[in-house]
Structures are given as structure tokens and as C-alpha cells.
Specification:
223 residues; alpha/beta; Arc Repressor Mutant, subunit A; six-stranded parallel sheet; 10 helices
Length: 223
């Protein structure tokens, strides 16, 4: 996908007013085009068969079967399209069930529109995206996975990279980190890549979880 080609999005939510409002917000960005709206999973499956969506954004709790059933149908059909859950629920079990069913992201409906746009763009790049408020709850879900980096790995980071890691632990997007540190967006992206490489991690979500775990055990120092 080139930078000039809009990201094609299918929205799934049983609340018509919210769905239309979200569609208008997203389409204000030239980088996103809404190619379908659905009120339930059945309508969504029909749309996905008829369109070439790059991302699906779905509510979690909606009749008759809900977003989890839609997720499972999408994966059972063999479609690799990234699916972002957008919900009011901040329950850890809902987060676990969504990611377990194949969601690439878990967003909350009180997020800023710019952060939702950022999540869509990151999902297309293959990143897993979780709302900042859910970062701590993600720690439990990732326990028992790949061996995490040891605390000593933090000494490899420069002072600026530690600042970046701190902001990642709060779930901030690259754009938000750039504003906080008064540096360019491209500079933040470069620092994030360096942090991941030095800690031997594959995603900013893993970096956020690692940072949260370290702060829970000890306050890591600043050089």
C-alpha cells in the first residue's frame, strides 16, 4: 500500500448514530476511506465478501451474536484483514477474549479520534494496538509467552530512549510522544525502533508491557 492510497475501512456497530459519527470523523482524514457500514456480523460478512477492506472496526457487544462471533467467522473464512475492537468495555476478560479470537487491536470508545486514526494506520502496518487504559491489563495476558528481556537490558538504552519507553508504557502514540518531547514524528519512530531492537522485542505493545513490569518491581533509574 502506498502513502497516497486511502486505507479502506469497514465499520460494524449496532448503534447507527455512533457508527455514522465515527465514519464522518474518520473520513475527514484523506488517509482513510469508509467502504462499508454494518449493524451486525452477518451484514459485515457480506460487506467483506464484496469489498477489499484493509481494516475492520467492530463493536464487541451487539445483537445477535456480537463482535467475538464476527471475529471467529472472519478468521474461519481465512481472511487476514486486521480487526480492531472498539468498545466501551475495559474488562480484562473482554480484552483477552478479543485478542484470543484474532483481534489485532482493542480500543475504547472514549479515545480521541486522532488516536483511533493512529491505531488504524498501525494495524495496517501489522502492529497490535491496545488502548492506553488497557496497557496494565495486557501484562497478565502476555505472561507465559516468550522470555522477556532482563532488567539489565535497560542499561543499553540512552536517556532519550528511556523517555520514549516511559511514554510507551502509558500507551502513547508516536504523534503524542512527539508532542510531549517536542521532537519530530520521524525521530520518535527511529527511537522506537532502537528501543525494540535493544530490548529484543517485536512490538511497542511488548515494550509497554516490559516497562510496566519493570516499574512494578522497581523504579528504573535515569542516566
Amino acid at each position: 500500500m502506498t502513502d497516497t492510497k486511502p486505507i479502506r475501512v469497514v465499520l460494524v456497530d449496532d448503534h447507527t448514530l455512533f457508527r455514522k459519527g465515527l465514519a464522518e470523523l474518520l473520513e475527514q482524514r484523506s488517509t482513510i476511506r469508509i467502504v462499508g457500514n454494518a449493524a451486525n456480523g452477518d451484514e459485515a460478512m457480506e460487506l467483506l465478501s464484496a469489498t477489499e477492506a484493509d481494516v475492520v472496526i467492530t463493536d464487541l457487544n451487539m445483537p445477535p451474536h456480537g463482535g467475538l462471533a464476527l471475529l471467529r467467522k472472519i478468521r474461519a473464512a481465512g481472511w487476514k484483514v486486521p480487526v480492531l475492537v472498539l468498545t466501551v468495555s475495559d474488562a480484562r476478560d473482554d480484552l483477552a477474549n478479543a485478542l484470543g479470537a484474532g483481534a489485532q487491536g482493542y480500543l475504547l470508545k472514549d479515545m480521541e479520534p486522532d488516536d483511533v486514526v493512529d491505531a488504524v494506520q498501525r494495524a495496517v502496518r501489522g502492529e497490535t494496538v491496545v488502548a492506553p487504559a488497557m496497557t496494565l491489563k495486557l501484562v497478565h495476558l502476555l505472561q507465559g509467552g516468550a522470555q522477556p528481556p532482563k532488567a539489565e537490558a535497560l542499561h543499553q538504552l540512552t536517556p532519550r530512549e528511556r523517555e520514549i519507553l516511559e511514554h510507551l508504557s502509558h500507551g502513547l502514540s508516536n504523534k503524542a510522544i512527539a508532542r510531549e518531547l517536542d521532537i519530530s514524528h520521524d525521530t520518535v519512530k527511529l527511537h522506537v525502533r532502537h528501543v525494540l531492537a535493544k530490548l529484543n522485542l517485536t512490538s511497542r505493545v511488548e515494550a509497554a508491557v516490559f516497562a510496566v513490569e519493570q516499574k512494578a518491581g522497581q523504579q528504573y533509574g535515569k542516566a
